[in-house]
Amino acid sequence: MKPFNSWMIGNGNQESLAGRHRKGKAWRNLFVSSLVIGVLSLVVLLFSIVDQTMGWIVVEYKNQPSELSLQPLEALNQDELVGILQDNVTARRFKALNQAIPFTDRSTEDILDLITEEVLQPSVVMSYRLSMGIFNREEMLADAAERYPDAELKFHLWIKPEFLNRPMSSNPLFAGIRPALLGSLFLILITIGFAFPIGIGAAIYLEEYADQRVWFNRVIQANIENLAGVPSIVYGILGLAIFVRALGGITSGSFVGIEGGNGRTILSAGLTMGLLVLPVMIVNAREAIRAVPQSLRLASYGLGATRWQTIWHHVLPSAISGILTGTILTISRAIGETAPLIVVGAATYLTSDPTGPFSKFTALPILIYNWTTRPQEAFRNIAATAILVLLIVLLTLNAAAILLRNRLQNRI
Amino acid sequence: MAEYATTSQIGSKDQLEPNIRQQLTRKKRPGEMMIQVFLLLAGAVSILTTVGIVFELGKESLLFFQTPEVRLWDFLTGTRWSPTIGSFGVLPLVNATLMTTIFAMVVAIPLGLASAIYLSEYASIRVRKILKPLLEILAGIPTVVYGYFALTFVTPILRSILGSDTVQIYNTLSAGLVMGIMILPLISSMSEDALSAVPRSLREAAYGLGATRLETSIKVVLPAALSGIIAAVLLGISRAIGETMIVAIAAGSGPAFTFNPLKSAETMTGYIARISGGDLSYDSADYNSIFAIGLLLFVITLGLNFLSRKLVVRFREVYE
């Protein structure tokens, strides 16, 4: 009887041995190249992102620097710079800036930055990616000279420390990700605060208490497996219906006296995300608990400990590294999750930082989504930069998980 | 140990002295009971989630189908989706979802399966130790990043090859191809598990009969692991259907009933993301429609996952 898939490599009987080996080699190369394609696409993906985090930009100013002073701005002293600022912004704006941080307390660089932002108002009209500037330099220079003869072409590093600390802005040159970073952080705290105790509780119940012969326990188990496969956007819809709408009185914070809000808050999003990661959390925790040797439990029972004493004093301490590793991996999955946040109602533009569980929010992946879908090139650059930040955070988390796992393996 | 009665002294249960009987019944521990109840409730949260999903999706979908403009038959067979003029045919959205899913599987099945065969049947332990984690990194990258990659890298390449007149900025082909890369590690790692679980004796028997390594892998190991591989493919399809961010970014916004992969078309998930991302007023047709489409999505993916799990279980029964 021939196997069903013999068509794939033909029937070997009629071929010479050398022919069969040749065929084997050819297919082997095919298998290797598939794997190489997979790994290569990872490399290309990372390259295409890093490529956008720096490059050449064409900048146009609303007010030319030469109109402000005869000397270059960098050569002026602090008082002259403050003078320029005073002459070129409205009195009200000047006062507001002075109130935020008094000019006497600011550094010269800081005031220079202020002049750039408030007076010069540069805008990026064209952006060339790093690889283009290096490998197709002539083409880039010709293109820039033809389309923007008066404007300045200069190298710009999109990824820089200020990017992390600036608020959002409609000008890519001054945009930062601070509200989104804080939003993601708050979100993860709520997600884990919800999913960690419940996930571990469920895992303990299923591993230590549940009798698999009881139908109810089998239903719980099958149900968790099913939930793990539900698309994340469906959780978003659930969160919209339950947390945002039905429980809007609680999630908007009106019960603690916060008025005028709606349910589209960090709390709603965090709880939605908590439900989303719960199945993964339970599966990971169960594996960690299952790995604790049975002899430990029996020894504890033998000494007269109750079931909970055994779990609390012996099972959980031995399983904790495994549980934490699983938790870190769960967090790294939740950080990149975007779709449910869109449905629950993440704000697309937010200048203020989130202040608590009842504030409106945005998150890093939401920001990436928004910037990616803008048509201007420069937004692609800051989207790539935000992606790089996100990937670095994920890499750090995963490295931490691996370190933790290794420590665990060394101990046993 | 004098105060405890031995078995020989007890005889039958009815003859026990009252104080001994008390010693032998389990002590009531209210604290332990409360903990157990809490743990049970924690386990029940997952059931509540499912009930919540089914109830909410069902309730709002019912409302959706009760609106006078919407009829179930037109919903399932209509080829035009434009809520503003009251036509609710879901086929354009389903069609776009199917197209992106097919492109994704065209990329992910052959590449994933070939990688799995290489890792399980050919690679040395050292090579596997290096390559496998690299593939798994692909699985850990957030989908919004893949969306970015599709829109800013793959689409421009497609446009420069096929001409920017024929390829629209948003198109289902680019989204589907990148989705294939995203699903590749899922299919390869699940298939590799299935292949590795095939007993060694089968391979050795094949070698003993003079089969080459390729013939062994393709004609003996692959058929033996088939149910596990099909399970992986089904799970991959379910993942592709439910995937949102790649299609929301790269496949286009605006439902279109087209079979041209170079044109933009909105998928089911893309539609949900776009509608709910805007200002959405409760109980409008738009609001209810995302629940109806969500229900469709839920039913399809649940069916696929269920089938996939059944296959994995069957395949485990054979060899473990």
Spell out the blueprint of helices and strands:
The complex is a heterodimer of chains A (412) and B (320).
Chain A: H1 17-50, E1 54-61, H2 65-68, H3 78-88, H4 91-100, H5 108-120, E2 122-129, H6 130-135, H7 137-147, E3 152-157, H8 161-165, H9 178-209, H10 215-228, H11 232-246, H12 248-251, H13 266-290, H14 294-302, H15 307-336, H16 339-344, H17 364-372, H18 377-411
Antiparallel strand pairs in A: 1-2, 1-3
Helix pairs in contact in A: 3-5, 9-13, 9-15, 9-17, 10-13, 11-13, 13-15, 14-15, 15-18, 17-18
Chain B: H1 7-10, H2 18-24, H3 30-66, H4 72-77, E1 81-82, E2 87-88, H5 91-122, H6 125-140, H7 143-162, H8 172-196, H9 200-208, H10 213-224, H11 226-242, H12 245-250, H13 268-277, H14 285-319
Antiparallel strand pairs in B: 1-2
Helix pairs in contact in B: 3-14, 5-8, 5-11, 6-8, 7-8, 8-11, 9-10, 11-14, 13-14
Count of helical segments of chain A? 18
The averaged pLDDT of chain B comes out at: 87
Written as H for each helix and E for each strand, in order along the chain, the element string of chain B is HHHHEEHHHHHHHHHH
Low-confidence stretches of chain A: none
CATH topology of the largest domain in chain A: MetI-like fold
Distance between the termini of chain A: 49 Å
Outline of chain A, from the CA principal axes?
globular
Oligomer: heterodimer
The DSSP helix count of chain B reads 14
The radius of gyration over CA of chain B amounts to 28 Å
- What's the CATH superfamily of the largest domain in chain A, by name? MetI-like
Give a count of the beta strands of chain B, DSSP E runs of length 2 or more.
2
Strand order of the largest sheet of chain B: 1-2
CATH architecture of chain B: Orthogonal Bundle
| CATH top-level class of chain B | Mainly Alpha
Task: Work out the strand percent of chain A.
Answer: 5-15%
Sum up the overall morphology of chain B in one term: flat
